[in-house]
Amino acid sequence: MSASPSPFADVPLAPADPILGLTEAYNADPRPEKVNLGVGVYQDESGKVPVLNVVREAEERWHDREETKSYLSQVGPPSYITEVQKLLLGPDSLLLNDGRVVTVQAPGGTGALRVGADFLKKYYPESTVWVSSPTWENHCALFEAAGFRTESYPYYNPETHDLDFEGMKRTIRGLPSQSIVLLHVCCHNPSGVDLSRDQWREMVEIFRTSDLIPFIDFAYQGFGEGIEPDAFAVRAFAEAEIPCLISSSFSKSFSLYRERVGALSFITTSREEAERVLSQVKRTIRTNYSNPPSHGAQVVALVLSDPALRARWEEELAGMRNRIQEMRHLFVETLREKGVKRDFSFIERQKGMFSFAGLPLEDVRQLRDRYGLYMTDSSRMCVAAMNERNIGYICDALAEVVGT
Ligand code: LMR
Q1: Index of the ligand 1 atom closest to the CA of residue 219
Q2: Residue environment code for 274-294, b if the CB has 16+ CB neighbours within 10 A, otherwise e
Q3: How far is CA 404 from the centre of its chain?
Q4: Hey, which of 81, 130, 339, 358 has its CA 20 to 30 A from 281?
Q5: Element at 318 (helix H, strand E)
Q6: What is the pTM of this model?
């Protein structure tokens, strides 16, 4: 036994993570009928988180082609950067032509947010970060860990299950200058409620005439309406030449969660400004994790740059998107069939992986304890984890708890 006092003696036990902690509890649950609607991962009709066929093929090709395991630059592979930029902004973007966009690979969307947060903290230490109410459980914790204060602007109205656009606009218009505003551009996590195109046009106008700093979180491209339509808001900001940060991710769209493949991009006002931003973001990366991992990014770059592989990816992505939409429909129908009178039809109007069931915490706990049905405390459900085999069980449990 050590004689010296432990430097860790006063380290308190942290609470479980509100999302990842649920998966730990779910994994430890011995009940075979349990269902995990907690974490945001897409599961296929058999309940598996798939490895896409196109990813398997690209991995084989990359395996044969890879010549070294030496370090990548802080920025990531050049082909990956080019493909990410085209996917975000469209291949014909004038900003790309002008060299005004900076992109670096990052370890997933979360890594991109954190690199962006660390970068911003250096230049805007007094700014507050404004997030939607509600937002992804990890957003506030992440920006606070980078040293920022966080506040929220109105977004989801639980009465209407829809957007509080007037409240959102009013608050954002009144924000102090140089506030950092986090925007989800599609498949809002956790509500599934997005702005319409006209509403985005209004938002762009607000930002165009302000000196706010937009930080766009774009983790679900292709899971809402499609690769191109989901990029509408990003491209509207770009076309209006509004300087901003964009975090993006291939965790969902390529089902590459554990490979941690994301990117952080900056839209700047000139090539020269872009060079300065890049030089600083490289330093932020260097002092965080030095340089990014290679495998996932090379696979994504290979698929996106090969027309045949890309077509197959688009098909598999559409398959995931359409299945989620079918599950939304089936969920609403099945609840109706089970005699649930409460109106859940709003779930069919929402997009992406998540929706709120609109349940109080005691119901959420009951579902977890009595039925092994896991959702976050806010009653966020991952619709992408529903399938034809578990939908009956999910709806029976809900019918018991909310009543018929
Ligand atoms: C989620 O919201 O469940 C996902 O984005 C996974 C995560 O890291 O929280």
Answers
A1: 5
A2: beebbeebbebbeeeeebbeb
A3: 34
A4: 130
A5: helix 307-337
A6: 0.96
Calculate how far, in angstroms, residue 171's C-alpha sits from the geometric centre of ligand 1.
Answer: 27
Residue 380 Cα to ligand 1 middle (Å): 11
| Residue 217 falls in the annotated catalytic set | yes
User: Cα(41) to centroid of ligand 1, in Å?
Assistant: 8
Mean pLDDT of 130-141: 97
The pLDDT tens digits of the residues spanning 317-351 come to 999 999 999 999 999 999 999 999 999 999 999 99
Ligand 1, atom 1, lies closest to the CA of: 40
Whether the ω angle into residue 12 lies within 30 degrees of 0, i.e. cis, is no
252 tagged catalytic? yes
For the chain, give the longest Cα–Cα distance: 68
Counting DSSP H helices and E strands in the chain, the numbers are 16, 13
Local confidence band at 404 (pLDDT 50, 70, 90 cut-offs): confident
Backbone angles phi, psi at 193, to 5 degrees: -100, 125
Token digits of residue 136? 């992804």
Q: Which residues pair with 245 in a beta bridge?
A: 215, 266
List pocket residues of ligand 1, CB cut-off 6 Å.
Answer: 19, 39-40, 136, 138, 189
